[in-house]
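Section 4.2 – Deliverable D4.2 (structural model, holo form)

The reporting period included a commitment to supply a predicted holo structure for the target in complex with 3-(1H-indol-3-yl)-2-oxopropanoic acid. Inputs used:
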Amino acid sequence: MKKNLLLLISGTVSFFLVMTFITLPIVFAGPIKLNYANFPPPKTFPSVQMDRWAKEIEKRTNGAVIIKTFPGGTLIGAKNMFDGIVAGTADIGCFCMAYQPGRFMVTNASGLPLGAPNSKVGTLVLWDLYKKYNPKAFSKVKVIAMFNTYPANIMSKVPVRNLNDLKGLELRASGPAVAALKAWGATPVGMPMPQTVEALQKGIVQGLFSSGEVMKDFNFAEYTKYMTMTRRVMYPFAVAMNMDSWNKLPKNVQKIIEDLSLEHSMWTANYHDNHVIEALEWSQKNHNIEVIEIPKAEMVKWDKLLEPVIANWIEEANAKGLPGKAIVDDIRKFTKKHGG
Ligand code: 3IO
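Output (structure tokens):
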């Protein structure tokens, strides 16, 4: 009886000693802090998804991980984002892969005009593509989210009702969207989204070709009174983590981040799809935007012109030692599988 009591006491004491040793370093070191860089301003969809991810991670780790966010290019700018993540300027960064077309050849192919009707389908296709081809471009980082935008529409100061209206029109775009505009006879001007505000104000461009929610989020509706619904070409995004920062994380935190990857990407796609529609209604109501639908028969001509864009991409991929045609065939297959 006495022996049992002694055993119980010593057992309890050792238990608390061990627990103290386990928890002490955590208490002293405090929570893990991660810096998350982003290029567009707060309230735009890439920053909205960043805030949601940060909150979700803090919640799922019970506050053991805290995320400090840097929207608006305050830590790393649009074109330096990937290099900044690799160099460790930030632990985490969100970037638009279309801003460096040659660098993210495989994943950017998911933005080609191959039939995805919305961000949700585009995002699922992007993930399928990433998993199947495991592109070398990401070997130095840990990918923690990936999503595609809603298919691009033309937002312009002058109405675009047919291909003739588009001739020589200077429109801002990036990546696969540049090739599409060229094929349609427009004059694409390449620059990241945040620079577009000034370019529109100064009249350097007459509009842009991107997902329509920017009408509200960047207030482009004030400058571009027309929106032509082309619904072709997407802008692929990724969120990646510095490899050292990733390797330093406890296994249970890594698991929480991995478990959130696809779910959060789909959360983003869903938010984005809904927000594009909401922003369009807002633009019509508050800025009297004219929405131009291209008749089906006319759109056939536009699509015909896009065929060489896909053929050129295949050629460029082949030249880089990638299986260009297989990738495009897979994108079509994945798009169908996901209901595109
Ligand atoms: C985009 C980039 C930053 C903020 C909002 C945005 N909506 C769509 C995009 C896509 C894009 O990067 C671009 O350049 O059109």
